[in-house]
Amino acid sequence: MENTFILRKRNRLFLNIFAVALFIHTFSSIFVHFELSIHIPLLAIVYWILLSMLQKMDVNEKWIQFLLLFGLNGYIVLINIDTPYYIHVLLFIYPLFVASLYHSVIPNIILLGITLMEIIYFFNRSFSTFKQTIDYADLFELLFLFFLLGLTAIFHSVFIQKAWKRMEENQSSMERALESKEGYLHLFFENAKDSIAVFDLEARVIEVNPAFERMYGWTREECIGNQIPLIPPENIEASIERVQRVFAGETFHFLETKDMRKDGTYFDAQLTLSPIYNRDNELVAMSVISRDISYKKEAERMLVQSEKLKLAGEIAAGVAHEIRNPMTVISGFIQMMNQDTKSPYHSYTQLIQSELGRINLIISEFLVLAKPHVTTSKEFIVEDILNDVVMLFKPELNLQAIELKEHINSSKTFVLGEPNQIKQVFINIVKNAIEALGENGQLNISTEVAVQNDREITISFKDNGPGMSPDVVQQIFEPFFTTKQSGTGLGMMISEKIIKEHGGSIRISSKVGIGTEVSISLPYRDRKKISSS
């Protein structure tokens, strides 16, 4: 069955041709004597107007087709009735020709049967008029011509209709395939977990998917048609160079870099940049597929740190074992020598014994890296440990003219854990602050207790020393990383390990030229006010 849209176009075309033909036929009667009654063209014009109105009224196009074909046939019938002449009979060819152009079988068959009957009728009716110029052989030839024309039109219509149907089926199949392909592409674009963005040659956003909005924090409405800042300022030049290379036809696969969200925060991203070409192989845009690999980077960092810890543990176990053996012998002899209180070297042997104890403590701390430190947890008062550390370092602080400001709570906050380990952490931090300050610096030590949901006590050590760069702060807890010439790079790493084993956290905030603040948070079990008596 023919498409209604195409049938409507054909009906309109043949109506226009019909109007032109009526005009020419009527106008030419001025110059050529047809002996045709004037009411026939007028009647045809009225009929044409009626068909045009019916088409504008959206009457079924099949009815318009039938009315048009049989209207043409009727016009020729009126001409033959009004002016019987054998040449007018030949005009019946035109409706058959028009019917064949519709590629419709049924109108062709009906019109062919009617036309043959009309030709026979007019020859019988007007044979006395025709016999002077035509005989029965001519009549047979004429009928055979019309029959052959009609038969050809019918077979042609059948062939064209089948071919048209196949074309429609193929087109429909291709449209479905295209719609399916576009649908799958749209689903892929919308549901992809990786961020996808398309940029024009001016770096303006053409399209983004929902993953882009989630990853970068920009909404689609904010992006489309605009240039948005996705690159950290320090990476702008490298980004411009990459874009230029992409516009030159180059593709980047799995490029690892830093990208920036709408709120200004950075994250590790893995990018794939590709040029986009149109059908004429002209570069029209660039696609950027990005993936947040922050977790992957963190996992890699933790793996490297774990390997470093493993190596440090193996070294620590070996070194501690080799040192402790001679240390045991030395310690035994020193104890014997130290028993002689009258010896002129008694003060020296006492100092040596004290230092040997300190060395033994350092070895014990070093062994924390080699294996889990077995401790017996007990409740202790954080403020007491902190006051002990302050008392321990006060002489050195006074010696270096470092101003100490204390804001320690006048209460007892009980924490479950190993007090010596917590003391070791406090000593490490204060010692680092003193070394960073030099002379005439300032050190603030304070505590703050959260009494509602968190139930944490926070101990802060803040100095006004030279501070540290973000890169140094980022690496401060890594094993063997140190900025000191004689440091081992293990102090802060061990401190972090101890605090985490106690269920707490340690944070470092530092700015170059301003100072450093180390904050330790520990969960507490109970608090008691110190009696004023």
Q: How many helices?
A: 17
Report the uncertain regions. Answer: none
Question: How are strands sequenced across the largest beta sheet?
Answer: 2-1-5-4-3
Strand share of the residues? 15-25%
Tell me the distance between the termini: 108 Å
- Percent range for helical residues? 55-70%
- Global Rg: 51 Å
What is the residue-averaged pLDDT? 78
**Element pattern in H and E:** HHHHHHHHEEHHHEEEHHEHEEHEEHHEEE
Which term fits the overall shape?
rod-shaped
> Biggest sheet, in brief?
5 strands, antiparallel
Structure write-up:
It contains 17 helices and 13 strands. It has 533 residues and is of the alpha+beta class. It has a 5-stranded antiparallel beta sheet, sandwiched between helices. The chain is rod-shaped, with a radius of gyration of 51 Å. The N and C termini lie far apart (108 Å).
